[in-house]
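Quick note —
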Amino acid sequence: MAVLQPGLMRAVSARTGIRVLARVALSKRVQFEHQTWSFVTAEIGEFWSHSWHGSPWNKLFTALAMQNGLKAILAGTISGLCAMALFLSELLPGLPLYGDEGGTRLVSFWSLAAALLAALPTLFLSKGNSSVFLDCICVDQRNNAKKAECIVSLGGFLKKSKTLVAFWDPTYCQRLWCLFELAAFLKSHGASRAALLVRPTLLGGCTFALACGMSITMVITFFIRWNDLILAALVFMCWGFLGFTAAVAIMRHYYEQVRDMQEQMRNFQLDQARCWCCEKGHQGADGRSLACDREVLTDCFRHWFGSCEEFEVRVRSSISGALASQLGKQAFPYHWLLGCTSPMLWFEMDLFASRYYEDALRHLPNLFGWWLGGFPLLVYWVMFLSEKCCRPARSRWLNALQTLSIAFLVCPAYLGLFAYQIMLSWMWPGRVPGAVLFAATTFAVAQMLWHPQPMKRLLRAMFRKTQSKF
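Predicted structure written out below.
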């Protein structure tokens, strides 16, 4: 696993990689200048392994969230805080809004507006920090000799890559190139999987959809009449049921795809893996003959693993396990969920600035309780039910009915958290202790569910420390 000659290994900036994915999403037929866009490098920060036959938009959104998501959240939060300070200093005008008990009050929308105006440009235009290997631009696609050298040297490229980012979709494990890259990376880096990062491309679309849904939820929260609790509960129940139904439908489909992938990997045969040049009959659109990538890749498999049969065994065992271990609940990390729901914080800045709550400071524990604990618990419950009931029904109508039934099971948990919050707030005078207890308990349970292994180690350490005292 070595690079054949110096100067063969090239990379692009993360920003350029995202621009390439954006152009591909906008137009299927795009030509890139190999020498102009990429540069020679001695080390690759991230090797982007992906299939060109999945959704280009989901892949683009996933790459954007990975590279610029944290920067966008920080930029939005800082801008929202600045807007809140300006409104409280009466340097920004307010919008008149009718109150629950008649009359009007001046309210602020500046924090949310400033946060969005800062976060969106940062998300789409920020420059990434890492160097990226992207096959369509880092490998000379027009020179067959150079392309063959790059294919043979790909093991060396992967060996000198810090991280392999696998953008997984249902077509990923069907493509010979993707399996080749994954096998080469795992072999060159040994048994350690610390540098392997598997991200389903569905995560990108869900990230943006969840952020939009949370923004709408905050708008409903602002305009609803809280003096009529029955009406407020009905509005939130209907909106929540709509959101949970969509989430359950998406997650059931995702876990069905993961289950199908595991079945395919258990019965993997090398000759069943698909290769673009073979599908095109080794002839390009301009009539020129195409070199067969399958022949070169097969020779690499024999050289690395001893035989193609041994490679098939590796795919069914270690490679399949490496993918499956990161395509469960780990595919949707806790910190990504906090980023998706950050519009909740931005809108709460406006509520605080508008003095919408009479005891605004006392409301903060409840806010962080929902952000850090309550909402992650609901998402975990949705994922758990969707995974257990991912097998589709025989007909489309029965499948839709099954999805609705699962969503009905989520709604009691949603209302139960509201009831738990209200019950704790009434148990102590001033309501602050109840709000703090709500935040602490929901956060602790969310951590135990989303990060079970670290929490188990922490509990064991606390138990041993307690035993040592006695």
